[in-house]
Design a protein that fits this description.
By secondary structure, the protein is mainly alpha-helical. The chain folds into two domains: 48-133, no CATH class; 135-167, no CATH class. The chain contains seven helices and two strands. It is 56% helix and 5% strand. It has helices at 18-23, 51-66, 75-98, 112-131, 135-144, 148-153, 155-166, and strands at residues 101-104, 107-110. α2 (51-66) crosses α3 (75-98).
């Protein structure tokens, strides 16, 4: 049970994008809303960034832009990715210099820098997935960006259409 007044998370799979339904011929025959146009413009580098953060920003933006999915709406998520990446690199440098273990009076314990680095790695991984930096995410982006004539040549999509027609 959630907090009163807050919506519950939906169970099951995430809904398919409208473009996917249209490309597949809308096998469910559910009336679909019009796709929302998304501007494909590059977000501006945050003003408070120094040279190192700006270099990371440009590197990540170049990669996402080359996949054709970068928009100005991604500025905040990209900023979180860059900040997390920079923090990860700084924590990693400290761990490499001082080690994974701290020696204290009460005994040995894992370095706080090591724990922080691991937490940042988890955040980075989830952000990388959102931006399409994993093989599965890249395949989904490539499939979503296919033009209808290219989709006809895709053997996986052809198999999925045949399966949908049988059901």
């Amino acid at each position: 049970m959630g907090i009163k007044g807050t919506p519950r998370p939906t169970a099951g799979r995430k809904p398919k994008p409208i473009e996917t339904h249209i490309r597949n011929g809308n096998p469910s025959k559910i009336p679909l809303p019009e796709p929302v146009p998304v501007p494909r413009d590059r977000p501006a580098v945050p003003e408070h960034y120094d040279e190192v953060s700006t270099a990371y920003w440009n590197s990540f933006c170049d990669r996402v832009e080359s996949m054709g999915v970068l928009t100005s709406f991604d500025a905040e998520s990209m900023e979180m990715l860059v900040d997390s990446w920079r923090g990860y690199r700084e924590m990693q440098a400290h761990v490499m210099e001082h080690g994974y273990v701290q020696f204290t009076k009460s005994g040995n314990s894992i370095s706080g820098y090591f724990a922080a680095r691991n937490k940042l790695a988890q955040q980075i991984t989830s952000l990388l997935i959102q931006f399409g930096f994993t093989p599965v995410a890249r395949a989904q982006i490539a499939r979503a960006n296919m033009k209808p004539d290219e989709a006809e040549d895709d053997p996986l999509l052809a198999m999925m259409k045949k399966r949908a027609e049988r059901n």
